[in-house]
């Protein structure tokens, strides 16, 4: 049976990914690091099941890419992400609500057929390019003939549509009551391959193989081993040194109308990292703490990110944030959760000009009391 063979292949893929990606080949040897590697593999598996299994570009639905308990590839406490499969031959109508978000955008991912990691972003449409009613509702068209507004084309290799909602408030959308975004996508024109009405042996086998491809694509096939490959211009490998924030270009799974900057931190048990900077003029901005697998720390239980609304400013309009293992009793504290190593990722959406990179200095945590 095809489905039985594909199921065995998925199990073999899971074993290979666990042995390699959560092991010495990717620089993981300490028990806690290996455990976190296994954890992210299971999160990828769960996300693959949620977003890829039984997908149908002829009858697509939006599904949540991440949740506070299922994280991957750079999630954010201030955002909610959804995606749906699309086909370049189709024309789709998308409806939804902003839900109070200060920024909403759509991107088209290319080359993500059958679970593969996207090769790039081939279309961007943010809320400056479509009409939003007084109640926050909107409608756009994806694919088909060009329209003057509220339209996003589908390139020949288009495969998935990603939706981003960003809030900038004292409470994240996961802590505050969650808005009903009412996201609906429907194909209105175009002949698109469809799933059979009832799943058969061949279709279930294809779904299982898509899951295996998805899992490999988020681990062994696309995530560079430590020290290998050339990082993007916005990524620093030097602890506490942030590159000038720049747009990501057409990088896969990135918002082309944002600017990013990222650097690792490395702190001893009695260290604190003092971060200084200024929030620029932009639609929204934030900093998030990630582990090495690009998962946010637990934003439901502690301050592991800050947006502008959550930041207390200095008299001159600048900010000072403090990252440390224990609370030093000062404003704008970020907790490491006891992790000596992690990543700090800055996001700025629709910036109005160049952005000054934040600076960082390691000091004794007791000196801040």
**Gross geometry:** globular
Strand content: 25-35%
Helix content: 10-25%
Q: Helices and strands, in N-to-C order?
A: HHEEEEEEEEEHEEEEEEEE
Radius of gyration, taken over Cα atoms and rounded to an integer in Å: 21 Å
Number of strands: 17
Strand arrangement across the biggest beta sheet: 1-2-8-4-5
If you average the pLDDT, what whole number results?
96
Number of helices: 3
**How far is it from the N-terminal to the C-terminal residue, by CA?**
66 Å
Instruction: Return the structural class.
Output: alpha+beta
The biggest beta sheet reads:
5 strands, antiparallel
Low-confidence stretches: none
Question: What's a concise summary of this model?
Answer:
This protein is an alpha+beta fold and 369 residues long. Helix content is 16%, strand content 28%. The strands form four sheets. Strands 1-2-8-4-5 form a five-stranded antiparallel sheet, with helices on one face. A four-stranded mixed sheet has the order 7-6-3-9, with no helix packed on it.
Explain how this protein is built.
The protein is built from three helices and 17 strands. It is α+β, with helices and mostly antiparallel strands and about 375 residues long. The strands form four sheets. A five-stranded antiparallel beta sheet has the order 1-2-8-4-5, covered by helices on one side. Strands 7-6-3-9 form a four-stranded mixed beta sheet, with no helix packed on it. It has a four-stranded antiparallel beta sheet with strand order 10-16-12-13, with no helix packed on it. Helix 1 packs parallel to helix 3 and helix 2 crosses helix 3. The longest helix is centred in the first third of the chain and has 21 residues. The protein starts with a helix and ends in a 5-residue tail after the last strand.
